[in-house]
Design goal:
This is Transporter. By secondary structure, this protein is mainly beta. The protein has helices at residues 2-12, 69-72, and strands spanning 16-17, 28-29, 46-62, 65-66, 78-91, 96-111, 128-135, 139-145, 155-164, 173-179, 185-191, 204-216, 219-229, 234-235, 240-241, 245-257, 262-273, 289-301, 305-310, 313-318, 322-324, 327-329, 332-347. A twelve-stranded antiparallel β-barrel has the order 3-5-6-8-9-12-13-16-17-18-19-23. Strands 1-2 form a two-stranded antiparallel sheet.
């Protein structure tokens, strides 16, 4: 029975958000920073976790309207992103955990407009690539279960706080292919697009909540959410904004094969970046927006290990207007149809 409850708790404590194509939602995890079943960690226990995520972004939206002509005209921007998030959790008590998270990403972005330009005559405008790779902004967080998880196995809620440190390179540069007035190519080295920058140069503070509840035999509810406050307004090296972030998930797990500790899950997922920050200014360049996804998954757990594979599929993609000194201004951004996420956690 305890293994089944660990499986159900798995979804409650797992949540991370990464860049969604052109919407630069950077790596962030709720309280424990990992998909543990950390509800059942004893004082003195450790847990290591690793999350892998891949997405292919290419569909452009203004608001919720897809700009289908971009793909038809081959002027779409394509982002391919491989991201990892490594976490280490220590249980100070049965209810209080602290976690450090280190994100690592490998990003490739190809476009026309950033190089020769979308207006170059058809057939003479090759697609060029810019890239970034390395460590992102690290996080330290703590979470506290409101009820003793060793006795309240039917359900629990944890609250958490976190700090994000500006450890990622916030001014990654690469070569862009340009044409001079004589149509001769040269390479201009400058900052890559904000969607593949490794960091945002600012410290951040997060508030977080997560929980789970047994609905009926074999079925459980999970939920979690976070909001990251970014008081710093501007990365002056790039003139990019240092934005807030948010994310939330809610859904159900069902023990499909209880004796084998295999469960399936289905839920909804929201992640995004607001146009206006809750604290501090909102100047600089940013692409605000949000993504709502349906998130099916499959979970396996043992006494010490947990594995989750999920494939969130986008049902709403909204590139909301950007705040400027003269008011809100519409813009476009590219999104993925879906992404692949796989997370493994081990306690010792």
């Amino acid at each position: 029975m305890k293994k089944l409850l660990l499986t159900f708790a798995f979804m409650a404590v797992f949540s991370s958000a990464f860049s969604q194509g052109c919407i630069a939602v950077r790596s962030m995890a709720t309280a424990n920073g990992n998909p543990s079943g950390s509800a059942f960690m004893h004082a003195g226990d450790f847990q290591v976790s690793s999350n892998y995520r891949y997405l292919h972004s290419y569909k452009h939206f203004v608001g919720t309207v897809e700009q289908k002509q971009r793909v038809e005209q081959h002027t779409e921007v394509i982002n391919d992103q491989h991201s990892f998030d490594f976490g280490l959790t220590y249980a100070i008590t049965n209810r209080l955990n602290v976690t450090v998270n280190v994100p690592l990403s490998f990003n490739d972005r190809s476009s026309l407009y950033e190089h020769y330009g979308n207006g170059t005559p058809a057939g003479s405008n090759p697609r060029f690539h810019t890239q970034s790779k390395g460590v992102g902004d690290m996080r330290l967080s703590a979470s506290f279960w409101l009820f003793n998880p060793m006795t309240h196995t039917k359900g629990n809620i944890a609250i958490g706080v976190g700090i994000k440190a500006p450890t990622g390179n916030a001014n990654v540069q690469d070569g862009f292919h340009k044409l001079d007035k004589d149509k001769k190519e040269y390479i201009q080295v400058k900052q890559v697009d904000q969607s593949i920058q490794l960091g945002d140069s600012g410290w951040g503070e997060s508030i977080e909540v997560q929980g789970y509840y047994s609905l009926f035999k074999k079925a459980n509810l999970y939920f979690n959410g976070f909001y990251l406050f970014s008081p710093k307004e501007l990365n002056r090296a790039t003139n990019l904004s240092v934005p807030d972030q948010f994310g939330a998930r809610v859904g159900m797990t069902y023990a499909l094969f209880p004796k084998r500790n295999i469960a399936v899950s289905l839920g909804g997922r929201l992640e995004g970046l607001p146009a206006v920050d809750a604290i501090g200014g909102s100047g600089g360049s940013r692409r605000p927006g949000y993504i709502v996804s349906i998130e099916p998954g499959i979970i396996w757990s043992s006494h010490k290990s947990s594995l989750l594979v999920a494939v969130p599929y986008a049902v709403v993609r909204n590139r909301i207007p950007t705040w400027t000194a003269t008011g809100f201004k519409s813009g476009d951004a590219a999104f993925a149809d879906y992404f692949l996420s796989a997370t493994y956690a081990y306690r010792f």
